[in-house]
Write the structure tokens for this entry.
Amino acid sequence: MSKHQYAMVMDLNKCLGCQTCTIACKKLWTDRDGTEYMYWNNVETRPGLGYPRQWDRIGGGWKDGALQPSPLPTMDDYGHAWEYNYEQRLYEGKRQPVMPSPEPKSGVNWDEDVGGWNEDENYYFYLPRICNHCTYPACLEACPRKAIYKREEDGIVVIDQDRCQGYRYCIKACPYKKIYFNEVTGKSEKCIFCYPRLEKGQVNACAAQCPGRLRFVGLLDDPESPVHKLVLVHKIALPLFPEKGTQPNVFYVPPFNPPKSDNYGKSILENPRIPLDYLIYLFGPEVKDVLTRLEAELKKAQEGGRSEVLQLLIGRDAETRFHIRPQLVQIQV
Amino acid sequence: MRTRLLMIVGICWLMCTVVLAQAPNTPASLQSLKITTSSASPDNLLKGESTAWNQIAFKHVALNRTPPLFDTDEPAALEIPIVDVRCVHAGDKLFLQLSWRDPTHDAVSLQEVPNTVPETRFRKVQTEENDRFFDAAAVMIPSRTDAGVAPSLQMGDADHPVQIYYWNATRGAMLMEAHGRSTTRRTGQTFPASGVYLNGQWTVTLELPNENQGTLMAFAVWNGGQKDRDGRKYFSVWQVLE
């Protein structure tokens, strides 16, 4: 067990789907040969295919203490990287329209904003995803090289690039499909929770850049941290697919959309815009209790009271949202 | 009860018979590998040219399939039971030719990432087929000649490190070291090798530093079509150079 555990909470009610986090991560970590198709952080529309396609349905994780089988996603599932013929159009004088090549047939966020239908009304929301830095990482168990380890000082799960041989058992084992194979290095890679930034007291790049201010970062075991409060005290943030058995350390405040049209004054649970079954599919049955708690907090605020939960979720400044403790998690050498 | 007892006795007798029948008959040729001296040019040998190799006798080396390593592994049949091995001295080098039947050609020829080009380097490639595994072969040799006993077949052991000359149909050749299971390490060095796939058969030629008689060698073949990588592979027992 790690001495401490960094965790992240994402409030899905505030996600704009702007992909600023995705680009912040990409520019910082996956701007190298072999990483073109990789998005350690991605934002997908839900309901939707996800990235890689159907990752939530193909397997991996734990069941009754045993790793579960899964195929490896194909590049068609991730989406091939494409380029535009700007050179020919702008500099070589070829009078062609600017076109992508190869012809895109799928890609990250391919079905953006398509969403689903609930009877006669469309609904969707955005789901930002990074590695969950699980307490019981299936990837770690699957690696025959022991190349994956969970940092004792802060619980961040990383792949030792010297030990990794690119066998990809970890990709199969991860139920969230958040490990990627780099063909150029012949090794697998994943989100490192920006540990070099955390060690310098800086928050993760995705969280720092988020214009929606929906990300909260801190140690789960630090009573002062917003993640501790949101997950363990107020109990309004849940992990994704808890039944996969890995115990993620990324948590989500579930989407709290108003009820469907013509339901003014009704509870969101009476006639929800987002079908409750879908939220239960993503976050487990506890999501109903969380929505009830959130609705009670909202009512309190609407009646003129002060809701600590909503004040925290507003996250006005970085001090509220991030509680980075480099001194606490320093390794004693 | 009596029937069961008889069955157990019967099975034991059968096993003893098989073992006893095999033991005295185990011909030395099953474990030894003859080196021939060739006057062919090293270049022609490395290219696998038939004129250079045809005169050289090969040995059928039996391959075993490793059992499934993980519960989640797909079962795999013994599709490649034999690798044929030829062994030749030429100049101050040792050339090994491994050939085996493989109905699936699991390799991709593709553009290489710039600045990593030389033919024998372990190539950096982007196949855009991240879910595939490629055909490969390897020769394992003990690193120490004074050890006296054969290292563990599972990549040697702490007291008996091994060198592994690994060739991959897509990525090329590289030299690895190991001193036990899961300790395999890329040395960053490469070695000359070539591979040809023709009519459902791989013929792979490796150029190694000269080895003396008595040197032990074990062979491995990975079938990409069976998702082979890591310890999921075919392997031989140790052979002795003669």
Residues 5-30 of chain B have pLDDT under 50 and may be disordered. Helices of chain B lie at 2-25, 28-31, 42-47, 50-53.
